[in-house]
Amino acid sequence: MPELPGQSYFILILSLHSTAITSTEVERAAKLLKGIAKNNEVVDVQASEDTIVYSGTTHQEFVQTVKGRVVRDVGRYGKVFYMELEGDGKMPVMHFGMTGMLQVKGQLATFYRETPRKASADWPPRFMKFILHIKDRTTGEIAQVAFLDARRLGRIRLCTSPRDEPPISALGFDPILCMPELEEFESLVLKRSCPIKALLLDQSFSAGVGNWVADEVLYHSRIHPERRCNTLTKNELAALHRQIQQVCKIAVDANADDSKFPENWLFKHRWGKGKKKHTLLLPSGEPASIKWVTVGGRTSAFVAQLQHFGGSGGSAQRGKGTVSGRPHHCISVTIFPED
Predict the structure, then answer these.
(1) How many Å apart are CA 329 and CA 331, to the nearest integer?
(2) Alpha helices (H) along the chain
(3) Residue by residue, what is the 3-state secondary structure of 155-208?
């Protein structure tokens, strides 16, 4: 991110390292924070001590770093979103983990998928790590935005140059912001021999693609999640390239509100692992058969009639519903180290 002449600013970055949460939910969080914070001052910061979540820093140092800065803008890359703040100093870098989220005072938190019935608007919220007090420059009103993390899998760090340091520097292409051209994409995929689902979850390959997005992309591409990358045909690669962009765009345009997702999406029917009756239909109008398999350490949903394991990739060994062991050249799907 280029620095403007005569100006300095630091960047507050919040991201998610879980493959369950995707860039679409992070985009929603970035829009929420941008609507409250842009061009306004963080007049106060409350922070709770947590020697696990605060990594290489302390909650006191976080307060000293953020308090008194004006928010220039809020952006996102992959599962990372950030606030540009005026002033000098180190830059807070954060990711949410499995249960991280934002909550605005007077509202319910922004939960992944659906808000549970036990959700509360109590303030300060439970599991709060920090609260930003943001003063509107026009009205003078102060809004409060909290960072929550129930399972303490998120991390809060202070870095000198976030764009040049992990986690951002370690991320691959963002399907919305910088999708590679088809020829380059084909080359990136075909040089791998791991299952395609595992590759899609690797954030060093495609930043922001999480578990359900990967399954949705593969469903619409008609590719089985266990297919080896180097066995995909040109038509399959073209479909994959197209669907990665399309699924992400539709989800972001819906502001990650799953009630607005198309009814023919696998997302609408995949939950419960067969315990709940679904209404997903095949193009022929017959009921679809949704199956589950573990790939890359993640549960993968697919439609058996449309996503075949056969073809040139059908000779790979398969376990009982699992890709057993770690295949040669299979990438790791650990997205960010936990220190």
Answers:
(1) 6
(2) 23-37, 59-66, 182-190, 196-201, 211-221, 234-253
(3) EEEEECCHHHCCCHHHCCECCCCCCCCHHHHHHHHHCCCCEHHHHHHCCCCECC
CA distance 280 to 247: 17
CA dist., res. 137 & res. 118, Å (int): 35
| 79 token code pair | 């599962």
Q: How many CB atoms neighbour CB 7 within 10 A?
A: 9
Mean pLDDT per 10-residue section of the chain, whose length is 339 residues: 38 44 83 93 97 92 92 83 82 76 86 61 93 97 94 83 81 94 98 96 92 96 97 97 96 89 92 78 92 92 92 42 36 33
- Measured over all CA atoms, what is the biggest interatomic distance in the chain, rounded to whole angstroms? 66
Predicted pLDDT at 256? 84
Closest residue by Cα to residue 94 from 104, 86, 102: 102
Task: Give the C-alpha separation, 189 to 187, whole Å.
Answer: 5
85 phi, psi to nearest 5 deg: -120, 140
Give just the sign of the alpha carbon dihedral 60, 109, 71, 337.
Answer: positive
In this prediction, residue 112 carries a pLDDT of: 53
- Position 116 scores a pLDDT of 56
Q: Which residue has the tokens 């809060």?
A: 156
Give me the residues paired with residue 75 across strands: 82
Q: Is the Cβ–Cβ distance between 26 and 80 less than 8 Å?
A: yes
Please tell me the predicted confidence (pLDDT) of residue 303.
96
Instruction: Walk across the sheet containing 128-135 and list its strands.
Output: 41-47, 128-135, 142-149, 100-104
Rg of the Cα atoms in the chain: 21
pLDDT value, residue 124: 95
Q: What is the C-alpha to C-alpha distance for residues 239 and 255, in angstroms, rounded to an integer?
A: 24
